[in-house]
Amino acid sequence: MFLCVALHLPNYPGVSSSEIAFLRFHITGIDSAVKWLTNSGILVVLLTIHRIEAVEDLVVAPGPDDEREGGDLEQEAEYDIYNNTQINVCNNVVDGVYLPYVGDCDKYIECKNNAILEIGSCSELDKASDPPQLCPNASETCNVGYDPVLQICTYLDKVKCLPTCDSERLSSFCYDNTCTKYVLCYYGKPVLRECHDGLQYNNVTDRCDFPEYVDCVANDCSATFQPKDIIYLASKASCSKYFVCSDGHPWEQECAPGLAYNPECKCCDFAKNVNCTIDAAARNIVPYSRSPLRRADIECPHVGIHFYPHKSRRDAYYYCVEGRGVTLDCTPGLQYDQKVEECRKPQFVGV
């Protein structure tokens, strides 16, 4: 290749014949050196080494069906969602407010001065009462749980517990009523996440999103529900959706095709009668829970839960759980920030 270039150098105006001859001499010398390396086998060795290094830089992380290597995994320490994380679950939580405990509906978290004061148990609390208020007969089966809406311990069948992590798929769910904290699940491992810069968790897309596309209505529902004061809330993400508050919980409702929710009559109405300008069709974001998993093209550590920036994309990142890794996308318009290990607005990345 170098020899062909040397023999076909054109004559450029202002360039002397001696300068062209000098250039041809050096290029021909490079071509001779390449031929010598090729014939001696050194160039092949160098290219092979470079190829091996390139492959090592792009190691495919183990997938869902891959066998794990090294040691008994059951003996590994279980990930602690409340201590082994840079996210403070009690941040911006008013003193005296109790939070639900992920993975155990019987437990609750007491916050004070933006820190965890105590992790308690409803069953243990009831046993310590004299006499027990919920389960007075020790010989009978009695299950209790913590109700984060009413902030009380009560019978388990009356409590809406947090979802549990599925061991077979990637999923997420909202953690608190602020809509900024959520739990990301992979291989049954719950990981506490937090949105920044005014972004909110969108349970429809499983990720942080702009607030104008998120229905954060939990705080708008009164825990002291009265039948005569039914609360209806319009959706910010869809013209055809609305919410009905019941016992402090927002229940999502959907109007029939062709109709839209009208806040004036608190009913489903013809679209022409409703002033709704939401452009839901412009966003086609498939949630993680319904998307085929994309294996991460990095080697994930065999122990622990880790987040890494993507090699070539600013709007994506890698999520590693006990040696298995997947590639996750940010909401369009957001970029991954390694400092907070979350997607955020570009102007705040690295700040």
Please, could you describe this protein's structure?
Pfam families: CBM_14. One of its GO terms (cellular component) is extracellular region. Keywords: Chitin-binding, Disulfide bond, Glycoprotein, Repeat, Signal. InterPro entries: Chitin-bd_dom, Chitin-bd_dom_sf, Chitin_bind-dev_reg. Among the domains are: 2-57, no CATH class; 213-282, Chitin binding domain (Antimicrobial Protein, Tachycitin, Chain A), CATH 2.170.140. The chain is 15% helix and 26% strand. It is built from four helices and 20 strands. The protein has a three-stranded antiparallel β-sheet. A hairpin with a 6-residue loop joins strand 11 and strand 12 (241-246). The longest helix has 24 residues, at 17-40. It is globular, with a radius of gyration of 30 Å. Mean pLDDT is 78; it is low at 1-15, 19-23 and 43-77.
In short:
By secondary structure, the chain is an alpha+beta fold.
Order of helices and strands: HHHEEEHEEEEEEEEEEEEEEEEE
Can you tell me the CATH topology of one domain?
Antimicrobial Protein, Tachycitin, Chain A
What is the annotated CATH architecture of one domain? Beta Complex
Strand percentage: 25-35%
Multimerization state: single chain
Largest sheet entry:
3 strands, antiparallel
**Mean pLDDT over the full residue set:** 78
Unreliable stretches, pLDDT < 50, 5 or more residues?
1-15, 19-23, 43-77
Estimated radius of gyration: 30 Å
Q: What do we call the CATH homologous superfamily of one domain?
A: Chitin binding domain
Keywords: Chitin-binding, Disulfide bond, Glycoprotein, Repeat, Signal
GO molecular function: chitin binding
InterPro entries: Chitin-bd_dom (IPR002557), Chitin-bd_dom_sf (IPR036508), Chitin_bind-dev_reg (IPR051940)
GO cellular component, one term: extracellular region
